[in-house]
Design goal:
This protein has 16 helices and 10 strands. It is of the alpha/beta class. The chain is globular, with a radius of gyration of 21 Å.
Length: 386
């Protein structure tokens, strides 16, 4: 957390960090809806700095485009998630799935096909959805109007192995370079969002400039860092995974874990683990700084300062909610997910990331709203502190 933006800034800026999580990102919209109700109807966004990764990048971009009218931006996101169907994210019809599967198999044995994008699912419908629902010109307008300081979208480079945050923001922001992570100024567009949400093997990588990029949650060792580099002096994180209060009970297993169970744990390690580690690191640094007298900091040239943070995360296990809505998937996808074990309790974790259906997404939006309203006063105080 030893970042240049830990140096005291003249104007306080609250950063919003939206994590990745596939369909789980609908939870973030419920949290945002509750926050929007805490402010006047026509208020600007309370988040001058907005950073998103994977599906969280799509939500982040939507907020940035409507930063001059926060409530409107949240309503637009809720409309998208509340009416979402899997065929708006990827091809879910039998011909489309079979064709893409055959292409994947062929790429393993054909050198010619191996040079084309490899993925289990065709996410061209998502490109069309983003193009229709997100007015990207609104990002620069929000910056020009002073409602947005910066938007950051994080991706991961397949060639360089670097975590790259493409940002669009105030001209005062400087690019940064750290070990395996950099910040690059860019005009954020559809390609950046598709790249950030391209889950490995499931969706194809996207070329940006000279390199192919995939889901930004991969090897994102410091998820809070981009917000600090972009000027945030405190951070609100909206997670998509229930925080564990204790270790899960160890049980004896009698059979080999199904593919969906393994894939679900891989997804969780991509989307969740690094955030928990970075939050713990931030708390340790804050604790250390609290032990150093102000005079000693000044004499020793210590420029670090305390970064306050708050995390809002689900109060319920999202994979259990996913199981309740599993049958809302189209027949072709139900067949495929049943074949890999995703339609049962052991595979529900994977299902919770890929269940892009309206009923499930609305349930997550409602959960996010309830969780936020239960701690309304605490959240409002954190957002509005000077």
């Amino acid at each position: 957390m030893n970042e240049p933006n830990n140096i005291a800034a003249p104007l306080p800026k609250l950063g919003l960090v939206l994590t990745g999580g596939g369909a789980r990102a609908a939870y973030q919209v419920g949290v945002l809806r509750a926050i929007a109700e805490m402010f006047p109807p026509h208020a600007h966004s309370p988040f001058p700095v907005i950073c998103g990764t994977s599906a969280g990048a799509i939500n982040a971009a939507g907020l940035a485009m409507s930063a001059t009218h926060f409530a409107t931006g949240v309503r637009q996101l809720e409309a998208v998630w509340g009416d979402l169907h899997v065929d708006q994210v990827h091809r879910a019809d039998l011909p489309g799935v079979v064709r893409n599967t055959m292409h994947c198999v062929g790429s393993l044995v054909s050198r010619k096909l191996a040079k084309t994008p490899f993925a289990l699912l065709d996410n061209s419908p998502l490109r069309k959805l983003l193009g229709c629902r997100l007015p990207f010109r609104g990002i620069q307008r929000s910056i020009h109007m002073g409602a947005l300081h910066a938007l950051g979208v994080t991706v991961w480079g397949y060639t360089s192995g670097q975590s790259v945050t493409f940002y669009q923001g105030n001209k005062s922001i400087s690019p940064w370079s750290r070990v395996m992570r950099v910040g690059v100024a860019a005009r954020i567009g559809i390609q950046h969002l598709l790249a950030s949400s391209s889950i490995p093997f499931i969706f194809p990588a996207v070329r940006l400039n000279r390199e192919y990029f995939g889901d930004g949650s991969m090897r994102q060792l410091a998820p809070l860092s981009p917000a600090l580099h972009l000027g945030a002096d405190r951070i609100l994180v909206i997670g998509v995974n229930k925080r564990k209060e204790s270790l899960d009970e160890r049980v004896k297993v009698t059979s080999y874990p199904p593919v969906a169970q393994i894939a679900g744990h891989v997804m969780s390690s991509i989307f969740v683990d690094s955030l928990e580690v970075d939050l713990e690191r931030l708390q340790r640094i804050n604790g250390t700084l609290a032990l150093i007298p102000p005079e000693a900091k000044k004499e020793g040239g210590i420029l670090l300062r305390t970064i306050k943070s708050m995390v809002i995360s689900p109060s319920e296990r999202i994979n259990e909610i996913a199981l309740q809505h599993a049958n809302s998937l189209p027949p072709t996808m139900r067949f495929l997910y049943r074949a890999v074990g995703a339609m049962g309790p052991s595979g529900s974790r994977l299902l919770s990331y890929v269940l892009f259906e309206a009923a499930y997404c609305r349930a997550l939006v409602d959960l996010g709203y309830r969780d936020t309203m239960q701690q309304k006063d605490e959240i409002f105080k954190f957002i509005t502190m000077s």
